[in-house]
Amino acid sequence: MSSDSLALLRKNAGQDIAALAEEHFKHDLQESDRDALKSAASKISTHVSIGSMVGLGLGVFLAFRLRRSRMQMFNALRANEKPTHVKFADGREEAVPDITPFLRPSTLGDVAAYTFFGFGGLFLGGETGLLTGSASAGRTITRDPESRERIETAFRRFRADVLRKEADALDKRKGVTELLGL
Fold first, then answer.
1. In sequence order, what are the beta bridge partners of 94?
2. Do 55 and 124 touch, CB atoms closer than 8 A?
3. What are the Cα distances from residue 7, in Å, to 4, 43, 47, 120, 124?
4. Whole-angstrom Cα distance, residue 62 to residue 114?
5. Across 24-182, where does the E strand assignment appear?
């Protein structure tokens, strides 16, 4: 599993593209546009962090509930009387093995439950935070129509430069992974 699987750990695409983005950020935008973009980026980061922590907490809570439920079921099964023999229609009797020790919740099962529920909650919470943060950031950027137009124009210019750079790299027989810094 790569670190890009979790929203909290995702990185940028590469140093060359980051430098190109920084150049467009400085030259194509006004100070208010840069502040709006920084505010939007911090909103995404905040939402992802909060979502990841809430998801992790929810996952651990659900693992705890599952463990407690398994223990209650085991205790109820152990306390009830169980048949020891089965009598068939032809009159013969067979002993029924006691499987209660095999149903006992184990430490390994508890570790697995906490691990998988924790990672699942972290993943779902982080992705949910990314979605809500992106929506909030989008509202921040589109609040001022003039600023929005400048930001969109700067982004189109940036994408055009990235595509030109990718085309030049392909013409020079460089792989796309080298271009992106992967």
1. 86
2. yes
3. 7, 14, 10, 12, 9
4. 8
5. 85-87, 93-95
Token pair of 88, please?
């068939």
Q: What is the pLDDT of residues 103-150, one digit of tens each?
A: 888 999 999 999 999 999 999 999 999 999 999 999 998 888 898 998
**Which two three-digit tokens encode residue 9?**
């750990």
Q: What is the 3-state secondary structure (H, E, C) of 94-137?
A: EECCCCHHHHCCCHHHHHHHHHHHHHHHHHHHHHHHHHHHHHHH
Read off the tokens for 36.
Answer: 């709006």
Q: Is the dihedral of CA 61, 62, 67, 68 positive or negative?
A: positive
d(CA 93, CA 157): 84
Mean pLDDT of successive 10-residue segments in the chain (182 residues)?
56 69 81 89 94 96 94 84 85 86 87 95 95 94 89 90 84 65 60
φ/ψ of residue 95, rounded to 5 = -75, 140
Residue 17: which H helix or E strand, with range? Answer: helix 15-27
